[in-house]
Amino acid sequence: MKKVLYIFHQKTSVAGDVGKKFENRGFSAEIIRPPLGDILPNDLSSYSSIVIFGGPMSVNDDEKFIRDEIK
Fold first, then answer.
1. Would the pLDDT of 55 be above 80?
2. Most CB within 10 Å of its CB: which of 2, 4, 10, 25?
């Protein structure tokens, strides 16, 4: 089965229209939220697509999850 990974940076974020388009095309979805403690996967081979949504933070912020994502 095709699977899409959504990476959100806020608790209340949703995939919206993008999510509906993937769903209509038969994709299952997995959601992770690094700022809330979710760990980014090391192996991305099980995903057909990855969508990274934005948030209010900046790459210049001194937050651990941002440093981890930049690695």
1. no
2. 4
